Amino acid sequence: MAEISWKRKPGQKLAPLAERLKKLGLVSDWDFVLHLPLRYEDETSITPIEELEVGVDAQVEGVVTNNSDNRFGNFEAWVDDETDMLKVRFIHYYPSIRDLLKVGKRVRLYGNPRAAFGGGLEMIHPKVRAPKSESDLPKTLSPVYPAGEGVTQLWLRKRIDRALMDVDISDLLTEEERNELHLPGLSEAINSLHHPKAGAPIGPLQNRTDPAWQRLKFDELLAQQISLKKSREMRDMNKGPLMPLRKGDNNSLTAKFFHSLPFKLTKAQIRVWKDIYESLGSERPMNRLVQGDVGSGKTVVAALAACQAIDAGYQAALMAPTEILAEQHFKKIISWLEPFGVRVVWLSGKQKAKEKREALAAIEDGAELVVGTHAIIQPDVKFKALGLAIVDEQHRFGVDQRLAIRAQQNGMMPHLLMLSATPIPRTLAMSYLADIDVSVIDELPPGRQEISTKLVSMSRKGDLVEWIGKSLAAGLQAYWVCPLIEESEKVDLTAATETCEEIKQILPQFKIELLHGKMTPEDKNAVMDRFVKGETKLLVSTTVIEVGVDVPNASIMVIEHAERFGLAQLHQLRGRVGRGSIKSYCFAIFGDQLSKIGKERLQVFNDTTDGFEISRRDLELRGPGEFLGARQSGAALLRFADFETDGFLVEKAMAMADKWIREKDPRAEKHAARWYQSKEKYLEA
Ligand code: ADP
Ligand code: MG
Asked: Which parts of the sequence belong to the Helicase C-terminal domain (predicted)?
């Protein structure tokens, strides 16, 4: 957000003021009250020019001794305060500056001194004004607000000051509560952020660690926690289908499926399964996220939950974010459950009309299990009795989609089970997901081979292809993932096609196929099938294989231009290998245009295969806003508080929200309503 905008295109009209303000989030008086300064200027004192420090904002006062236009068209002037001389320079300026800086005039300048070319100090674009008298210095620091085109600092200051007078800033916390939290009063905090007293240290104000900031952050977190807990309460008022586990009944589908598994569940899988089957045995609709690193075996746990729903006479649905992944689930689940007479229906947006009609009819007729893409949440799908909705790779779906799948069915709210390999760091989970129960599969099935990761420079791509040739000859299979160049599939496709041809030329003896997002579902499946069967040795693909795909014999993953992927994506891709008992490799090929952050990301990727550690480092490198992604965060992003640095405030806000709601304290409603006054709706899901 620009503080001052110098140029408007000729003829371009400004939008009406109200609209410009709305863009800044400024509608109600309360919005203005919470429009807090970005930074401050200390115009309460004058610094002698000889005491100026490079990089430290300061105010000086002196007489203009000379001015001129330099050869670049910049306007320059020299100001003398008897201790020293200071140069000021304007690259963009209003003509009125020339009048203010006429030789002989006394001026007051506020700006950031830097070393001038040719010696001495200069200020570029300082604030210039003609002092009325020596004693007219302000008593408080001057706030600098986030502003926009046609909304000036002066106007904002006046408008905010009026709002500060008009709005009821009464404190909802008692003195006792404030003392316990070591927080100042609300009105005191807000006023001191808008008008800090002269001499107040600017550092803590600007880096938002000042107690006044702590108070605002606390109130924000408190409002968030209250609204999250409210939404949980609302959900708890709904009834979910009762589907207790039929313990000891060896004829239940759950028991038969469990005993037919070719492997033993890990301890972590058993623990998470228990969380789930206990929830399903209660009428409170479940809202559970199962987190488990790639390959930890989330699918089988979800399938066990589906069996429990079916045992109780309900339907279950499993939704996956891509056709390929949904198809894989479909095949696996058929192989697991059809032997026991379960009807499994496939549903996808790209189905032929007749197939789709049949699928919809079967679902309405009560087919026990539906597997598919987001086609499952389209309005034409009518379940007979949906009891459990499972969302795989939940972070790939938006909030709306997750809510849609658990829409009321015949007055009942189906239980919701979400699966994700992208772990959400603890503070984030605590605050943001207050409405969700989290179960973690923190253990991989035994016998998995450590994946060895190698960073490879682009110049050594040839050697790598040769090495892969030898591995393919030894019976192994490999993925080769091509980079996302732009948000354009077409460009990606060209790159992937070229790479595929290139490799085919070097390794003509092997079957190599290309998989990309533009293919029809049938073609994609056919390619995938040949890879699963082992006919195709090397699969070159765009990132369509990023999530969930499971081909145990594939043990080599090559990621070209790995620096263009996010850490979570890289980790997902690497998770495609190391699924069998063969020693697995992941090669991250990096280009020569490696940014600092790109380098750091690859280093993290190289250093650890632990999903939680990767996610923690990812958060550090990117910050929570981007981590959650726009679609996941909805309108919920915090303005003032920061999950990483304000963890202790999160815990305190949680505790207070809990208490207020438990004790039916009317302050809970009041606080949330005040805080979210002009926001469209409270946070959801
Ligand atoms: P993810 O958690 O990434 O979705 P999957 O559910 O796809 O992982 O499981 C990965 C592979 O591990 C599958 O082939 C699955 O059959 C297998 N698997 C799951 N649980 C176990 C276990 N307890 N022991 C051995 N293999 C398992
Ligand atoms: Mg999976």
From this structure: 474-620
**Ligand 1 in contact with 265 (CB < 6 A)?**
yes
Backbone φ/ψ region at 317: left (φ over 0), alpha (ψ -120 to 50), beta: beta
Strands 75-80 and 58-69: antiparallel
- The DSSP string of 363-401 is HHHT-SEEEESGGGGSTT---S-EEEEEETTGGGS-HHH
Q: What is the mean pLDDT of the chain?
A: 85
Give me the pLDDT at residue 588, please. 95
CB of 579 closer than 6 A to ligand 1? yes
The CATH fold assigned to 451-608 is: Rossmann fold (3.40.50)
Q: Which CATH architecture has domain 253-441?
A: 3-Layer(aba) Sandwich (3.40)
Q: Does the C-beta of 268 come closer than 6 Å to ligand 1?
A: no
The domain made up of 45-137 is a member of CATH 2.40.50.140: yes
Domain positions in the chain: 17-39+145-207, 45-137, 253-441, 451-608
Share of residues in the chain with pLDDT > 70 (%): 87
- Please, is 495 exposed, middle or buried when counting C-beta atoms within 10 Å of its C-beta (0-12, 13-18, 19+)? middle
How far does the centroid of ligand 1 lie from the alpha carbon of residue 299, in Å? 7
In CATH terms, are 253-441 and 451-608 the same topology?
Answer: yes
Predicted confidence (pLDDT) per residue in 146-158, tens digit? 887 778 888 999 9
CA of residue 438 to ligand 1 center, whole Å: 19
Give, as residue ranges, everything with CB less than 5 Å from ion ligand 2.
548
Look at ligand 1, atom 23, and give the residue with the nearest C-alpha: 265
pTM for this structure? 0.66
For atom 9 of ligand 1, the residue with the nearest CA is 297
Amino acid occupying residue 236: D
Contact in structure between 576 and 479 (CB atoms under 8 Å): yes
Output the CA 54–ligand 1 centroid distance in Å.
60
Given the CA of residue 269, which atom of ligand 1 is nearest to it? 23
Q: What are phi and psi of 544, to 5 degrees?
A: -60, -20
Tell me the residue type at 562.
A
Output the residue whose Cα is nearest ligand 1's atom 18.
Answer: 297
